[in-house]
Design brief:
heterodimer, A: 163 residues, mainly beta, 3-stranded antiparallel beta sheet, 37% strand, B: 757 residues, PH-domain like, ABC transporter transmembrane region fold, 4 domains, 6-stranded mixed beta sheet, 4-stranded antiparallel beta sheet, 24 helices, 54% helix
């Protein structure tokens, strides 16, 4: 069984951070592209799946079908770059809500620490399956709740008033 | 809000070092939420990120580059040295104005430019930059909505609308007092009826018919009086509240129409419709029904309390004491119900949104054979609705019995205490009967009264949403002292015009002069700023810097409606209002004669197809009317513009949404329209600009080239590339040689030379 099968051929590219903290892409032909942005193709339904590497002009330079095709070093670099770029805090607890009428200001505890968000309207809460939610803050940050059932009773109670 | 009171450690400023700019940052380097700040001084950038309370400093120098970017609600400010990044700070996008401001200042420091930090107009409350002095601050607007809970006092602001009716309100109040008092007479009369007639009769005395007649007459009179007064009061107050609601609605709509176009861009249509339609109605119902009932109830309770105390203080205490407790219990249950009802409202909205989604798209659903899938989706939403209802019904079904139970318990207390007092001969049977009669009315009102909290909240929320509109100041202000606009020649001049949206610069340093009668074509990629430029000329928005002049006068000094009257606009998708064809053509000049309308339609090449419609010029078009094709609608729009005979004409992709054949017909109509007018045309298809005297090529918000078609082709610059790309596309679409642009260069050069006409 050869490692270079027709379909599962690992992409011979590599990724690294340059001194400017930007992602640097080395293509199979040896050319190096600086300042590359990784973009998840399905950030919600398959966050660990395909990633497109986009150049400064907004054009795709390389398509990574799955990060597992990369060498371990590049994979870590990619994971770090993605984690840094996509700030999607996971809500662990809802501490308080200013009012049950929107717009409403929420204090939340997330995996990135405590912060507040403003819910502009109930429609800004998007259902991702039966138990997961995506909550859009009016200034653009998206907060996730992976499993409503795992929230504590008070958070669930507060949240329920908006669902 | 920018001046944070609690700074943990003082920034390590050198003696004489001045802070020029400040930016709050929200993340620590690891990307966790942590408040920090960034200060800009003459020579350094000082940063404190939440993790450590210490400050780090970066010396400024010309070799450094500042980069601002944002993604998914997080803004990033990076400082790059020649070889490596020297700093990176991240903030929430709600600070984007502040950040753009900070970056501007920092860049100037890097370049070594001296500048007074307070030179630009600034918002008095939050300090962020304004497009011009006195403009509404976008930042404040955003935060204002965010941190105001719908306080009940918003309802007091309705006084502004109630004032004109204050005499009627006063009469209504007096009537309320009188009618409430009248309803309290009958229970009072039960007392003598019982003590002076019935009890003596049981004790063997004959009934005094005259006395009975008097008491019964009194009962009837009181009932009739209460009826009459109640009618008058309800009628007058309903009349007044209906007028208040109507005034509110008109005021909100008028104000809405005066707002600038970008306000509408940021709001959903359905939301605005709801605010003006149902919210005003909700307030109306609140004023005429709930508030009135509540006021009556309060009056009644107060009066009853006085009467009861005057009859027998101790029994009055026993009667009134349980009241607050029972009211509180009812309120508790109500609250639970309310959240349940709100939930049902939201779930119901989900059900209807499935319908709203699939019914217009039914052709797609059927074509892809997804009826099953859609049916499942609907069933799922319906199921959720059912579950929410089931849950609510558990409490709901308990509610009425609970109220009755509490009422009975309350009456039981009165009975028990009353009997005990009668037994001790402290009160008569009549007094107890009167108490029971009074208190019975009380309890039935408690349920309605407990509702007041939630209805008031709802009405306050509604009032707030309406005042949101009323408080919004147009970002395109009407000048205080507009200059009169005489005969317009039509010379348009743009001087150093820049425009930015948040931190994104859309237009930069545009200088452009369009002579009277000249036609220019605006060309560029989508997003190059063409539409923004046109919006600025129409004064849908005002430039951040620079000015736009019409015949040498700044358009900000002209009355808005006065100025726009001289502009004809034809858009990509022409909007027809519901009405006849003639009304639509005469939209800009409702006083036009039939002859003028027909003449305009002829010039717009619309006459023939209009006559083919079932009722000619009287055919109904628009949303519920005759459906017209894109090209037909477009020609009506051209006729509309022709009829007002404007000096200035703006064509925004006027032929983009029609096929090539229709395009030629519209082009002929446009040729009539353009003649002799200052015209600014945007077109994606370059071939439609063949008539233009001059083409202006925009790229990323700047004018990069200007000139005639042939001249620009020769330069082989941006226009050449655009042209090539379209020629290739046309060739690919229509096959070699058949597209209108495939054999472009010689042919185009031919008809672009407009001179000989």
């Amino acid at each position: 069984m050869s490692g270079n099968g027709a379909s599962g051929r690992p992409a011979p590219i590599s990724l690294a951070f340059d001194a400017h903290g930007r992602l640097e892409l080395r293509l199979p032909d040896g050319t190096v592209r600086p300042d590359v942005t990784p973009v998840r193709a399905f950030p919600l339904t398959a966050p660990d799946g395909s990633v497109s590497l986009v150049g400064r002009d907004g054009r795709e330079l390389h398509w990574i079908e799955g990060p597992e095709s990369l060498d371990p070093g590049s994979r870590d670099v990619l994971a770090a770059a993605l984690a840094d770029r996509d700030v999607v805090p996971r809500i662990e607890r809802i501490l308080s809500v200013s009012t049950f009428v929107t717009p409403s200001e929420w204090r939340v505890a997330t995996d990135r620490g405590e912060t507040s968000l403003t819910l502009r309207a109930e429609e800004d809460i998007r259902r991702l399956g039966p138990r997961a939610l995506l909550i859009a803050d009016r200034h653009g940050i998206h907060f996730r709740i992976d499993d409503i059932g795992r929230l504590d009773a008070r958070s669930r109670h507060l949240l329920d008033r908006f669902l | 809000m920018t001046q944070d009171a609690r700074i943990p450690t003082e920034p390590p400023l050198a003696p004489g070092e001045r802070v020029l700019g400040r930016l709050e940052i929200d993340f620590d380097p690891a990307g966790r939420f942590a408040p920090g700040e960034l200060l800009l001084t003459e020579r350094r950038l000082l940063a404190r990120t939440g993790a450590s309370d210490g400050w780090t400093a970066v010396g400024l120098g010309p070799e450094l580059r500042l980069r601002v970017s944002d993604h998914a609600g997080v803004g990033t400010l990076e400082l790059h040295g020649p070889r490596a990044r020297v700093g990176r700070w991240r903030y929430l996008m709600r600070r984007q104005e502040q950040a753009a401001e900070f970056a501007d200042l920092a860049r100037q420091r890097l370049a070594g430019v001296e500048r007074e930090p307070e030179a630009e107009p600034r918002c008095a409350t939050c300090g962020s930059a304004l497009p011009y002095a006195g403009a509404t601050c976008r930042e404040c607007e955003a935060t204002e909505v965010a941190d105001t809970a719908p306080a009940t006092w918003t309802l007091f602001r309705l006084w502004r609308f109630a004032r004109p009716y204050r005499v009627w309100l006063a009469i209504g109040f007096v009537l309320t007092l009188a009618s409430t008092a009248a309803t309290l007479v009958p229970p009072y009369l039960t007392m003598p009826l019982m003590d002076d007639v019935l009890i003596p009769f049981q004790n063997g005395q004959p009934i005094d018919v005259r006395l009975v007649g008097m008491y019964l007459g009194g009962l009837l009179a009181a009932a009739l009086l209460a009826w009459g007064l109640g009618w008058a009061r309800t009628y007058i107050l309903a009349l007044v509240s209906e007028r208040i609601g109507a005034d509110l609605r008109t005021a909100a709509y008028d104000h809405l129409l005066s707002l600038s176009v970008d306000f509408f861009g940021s709001k959903r249509t359905g939301d605005l419709i709801a605010r003006i339609g149902s919210e005003t109605d909700r307030i109306n119902v609140f004023l005429s029904l709930h508030l009135l009932d509540f006021a009556t109830d309060v009056l009644m309770i107060a009066m009853t309390a006085v009467i009861l105390v005057s009859i027998d203080p101790s029994l009055a205490m026993a009667t009134l004491l349980p009241l607050p407790f029972i009211a509180w219990l009812i309120h508790l249950v109500r609250e639970r119900l309310r959240t349940g009802f709100e939930k049902i409202d939201r779930v119901w909205a989900q059900v209807t949104s499935v319908l709203a989604d699939t019914i217009p798209g039914v052709r797609v659903v059927k074509a892809f054979a997804q009826e099953r899938h859609e049916s499942d989706r609907f069933a799922a939403a319906n199921q959720r609705n059912l579950r929410a209802n089931d849950r609510l019904n558990r409490t709901w079904s308990l509610f009425t019995p609970t109220v009755s139970l509490l009422t009975e318990v309350g009456l039981l207390v009165v009975w028990a205490f009353g009997i005990w007092q009668i037994a001790h001969e402290r009160i008569s049977v009549g007094v107890l009967t009167a108490f029971l009669a009074y208190i019975g009315r009380f309890y039935t009102r408690l349920d309605t009264m407990s509702r007041i909290v939630s209805v008031t909240q709802k009405a306050a929320a509604g009032a707030k949403r309406i005042f949101d509109i009323l408080d919004h100041v147009s970002s395109v202000p009407e000048p205080a002292d507009p200059k009169p606009l005489g005969r317009v020649a039509g010379r348009i001049e743009l001087r150093g015009v820049s425009f930015r949206y948040g931190n994104r610069t859309v237009l930069q340093d545009i200088d452009l002069r369009v002579e009277p009668g000249e036609m220019i074509g605006l060309v560029g990629h989508s997003g190059s700023g063409k539409s923004t430029l046109v919006n600025l000329i129409l004064r849908f928005q005002d430039p951040a810097t620079g000015s736009i002049l019409l015949d040498g006068t700044d358009i900000r000094n002209l009355g808005i409606a006065d100025y726009r009257r001289h502009i004809g606009l034809v858009l990509q998708e022409s909007f027809l209002f519901f009405g006849t064809v003639a009304e639509n053509i005469a939209y800009g000049r409702p006083d036009a004669t039939r002859q003028e309308i027909v003449a305009a339609a002829r010039a717009a090449h619309a006459h023939d197809f209009i006559l083919r419609l079932p009722h000619g010029y009287d055919s109904l078009v628009g949303e519920r009317g005759q459906s017209l094709s894109g090209g037909e609608r477009q020609r009506i729009a051209i006729a509309r513009a022709l009829l007002i005979d404007p000096r200035i004409l703006i064509l925004d992709e006027a032929t983009a949404s029609v096929d090539t054949e229709t395009e030629q017909e519209i082009q002929r109509a446009l040729d009539n329209l353009v003649k002799g007018r200052t015209t600014i045309a945007i077109a994606h298809r370059l071939s439609t600009l063949r008539q233009a005297d001059r083409l202006v090529v925009l790229d990323r918000g700047r004018i990069v080239e200007q000139g005639r078609h042939e001249e620009l082709l020769v330069v082989r610059g941006a226009y050449f590339r655009l042209h090539e790309a379209q020629a290739r596309l046309a060739a690919a679409q229509f096959g070699p040689g058949s597209g209108p642009e495939a054999d472009e260069p010689p042919a185009a050069a031919d008809h672009l030379g407009r001179g000989t006409s």
